[in-house]
Amino acid sequence: MLTVRAPATSANLGSGFDVFGVALGRPADVIRVERADRTTIDVRGVGSEYIPEDPEKNTVGAVAEALDAPAHITIDKGVRPASGLGSSAASAAAAAVGLNELYDRGLSREELVPIAAEGEAVVSGTAHADNVAPSIIGGFTIAREDGVTGIDAAIPLVAVLPEIVVSTRDARRVVPETATVEQLVETVANAATLTAGMARNDPRLVGRGMGDSVVTPARAKLIDGYNEVCTAAMAAGAAGVTISGAGPTVIAACTDHDRRRVANAMLDAFEDRGTDARAYQTRVGRGAEVFDS
């Protein structure tokens, strides 16, 4: 039996829609995998009542099938479903890493990314790697169809999760189908700035690169109080603010010195709208970790 901890993630980061992702120091999913004749799944933890245990409907079941690695899999959810923090991706990433080692499949972390992405498609409807890549590899990742590029980074972040539910499918429906040339140029400039900031471990550059005039404004309408939360975060010292993944989590880049003040300001802004929220004072962190059970 093996135990795997796979971190929550934040995808898109504003300017990197369906491409950028970062692993977060917390929260995380923890799963245990044990060899078996057929795959069975036991889910516990936050939001477990909404997660099917049928292997054909659960992301880890799809991963087990893809690796030809039947197992009894226990999932302890630390990442709330429909949070914008890569909940299904964390489980898929943990399963891919754990089953690969349990059955000695010999695949690299990079080779496990598309397998975990196919598993996540069971619940999200599409096989995107922007969440599973950082959850497996760690750090800041750039997901392309031909592979994943990773950058070690330790940028301080604040992720604030309000008691609002935004499903990935709903968030994808509001994404605009077209963009102007001006918006394209702006997005490329912001994405390049954010990547440079990650490479330099510079939160100010990362924050400047989070700007996005295409996807984020459309999705912001699904999060009550989003604009007020962004304004409060920037006033408290954040370098940049955007929606984490499909939302409703709002994520801010900042310095260590400003992190607590930014978190409190964002919580207060949600409270002013009558919405309870939880803040994770975290940073870009490591990928999935394996422990002997």
Brief overview, please?
37% of the residues lie in helices and 26% in strands. By secondary structure, the protein is of the alpha+beta class.
Core attributes:
Alpha-Beta Plaits; 293 residues; threonine biosynthesis; Ribsml_uS5_D2-typ_fold_subgr; amino-acid biosynthesis; single chain; 2 domains; 26% strand; alpha+beta; Ribosomal Protein S5, domain 2; EC 2.7.1.39
How would you explain this protein's 3D organization?
- It is a single chain.
- The chain is α+β, with helices and mostly antiparallel strands and 293 residues long.
- It folds into two domains: 158 residues, Ribosomal Protein S5, domain 2, CATH 3.30.230; 128 residues, Alpha-Beta Plaits, CATH 3.30.70.
- Strands 1, 2, 3, 4, 5, 6 and 11 form a seven-stranded mixed β-sheet that branches. The protein has a four-stranded antiparallel β-sheet with strand order 8-9-7-10.
- The termini are close together.
- The relative contact order is 0.19.
- The model has no long low-confidence stretch (mean pLDDT 95).
